[in-house]
Amino acid sequence: MNTGHPTITIDLVLDRLQTKEVLRAVLHSVLFHRLFGTVRPRTFEVLDVTMPGVDDEEIAHQVEDKVDAFWRGVEGDTNKRGQILVTFSEKRPRKSWFLIGEEEIPWEQWIINAEIRQPSERERQKFNAELAATLTKSLQTMLVHSSSEKGRAAVPLITNASSISPFPIKIAVKVGGVEVA
Fold first, then answer.
1. For residue 42, which phi and psi values (nearest 5 degrees)?
2. For residues 114 and 10, is the Cβ–Cβ distance under 8 A?
3. Residue 118 CB neighbours (<10 A)
4. Are 12 and 138 in contact (CB under 8 A)?
5. What is the DSSP letter of 47?
6. Which of 5, 37, 87, 163 is the most buried (most CB within 10 A)?
7. What is the pLDDT of residue 152?
8. Per-residue pLDDT averaged across 54-82, rounded?
9. What's the CA gap between 115 and 98, in Å, rounded?
10. Are residues 40 and 55 in contact, defined by beta-carbon separation less than 8 angstroms?
């Protein structure tokens, strides 16, 4: 599948009790590394892993809405798996004979695949250690990609720096291949 833009995938196997907390932290971390306006930083502590976040009311509200949508979607799904897709786009003039306007062209997409499990009390310590290692690896993926030549080259020219993000951001939640709101 050649989308023409980088796609970065993060795979998570989550404890049911920590699903919302982990997804909130991962989404904030992705946004922290890809917002180009003035960002007030904050941190999230998840299983002794410190993850960066964005202290912005609008971003926090959007993240919370999508985490809640994911939770509602997987609660009603039998296999307890879903995706959160974060797509960064740029606005370009629409090239058409009859239409005048702008279209959003994606320049990068992050796919967070999440599966929810419910480990027994005996398995919980090992499960949490594995999840902490996965979160650390996810942070490393974010850092390496956003600072790499390929990651920097994907970012279009910033022409409007008046907000926290000069680019449109779309966060979508899919459960069972169907987008949920």
1. -145, 170
2. no
3. 12
4. yes
5. T
6. 87
7. 83
8. 91
9. 45
10. yes
The answer to whether the beta carbons of residues 37 and 146 sit under 8 Å apart is: no
Q: What is the pLDDT of residue 3?
A: 65
* β-bridge partners, 104: 91
Rounded to an integer, the average pLDDT of 33-48 is 90
In the numeric block, the tokens 């404890």 are attached to 15
Work out whether the CA dihedral 113, 118, 123, 124 comes out positive or negative: positive
Q: Is the pLDDT of residue 2 over 70?
A: no
Residue 95 has what pLDDT? 72
| Distances in whole angstroms, Cα of residue 131 to Cα of each of 52, 71, 87, 109 | 17, 18, 25, 23
Helix/strand/coil for 114:
strand
H helical segments located in the chain:
19-34, 57-75, 121-147, 149-154
3-state secondary structure of 159: coil
Give the tokens for residue 18.
Answer: 């920590």
CA distance 97 to 136: 49
What's the pTM? 0.90
Residue 42 has pLDDT above 80, yes or no: yes
Characterize the bridge pairing of strands 102-117 and 7-15: parallel
C-alpha span between 27 and 176 (Å, rounded): 20
- Say yes or no to pLDDT of 97 above 80: no
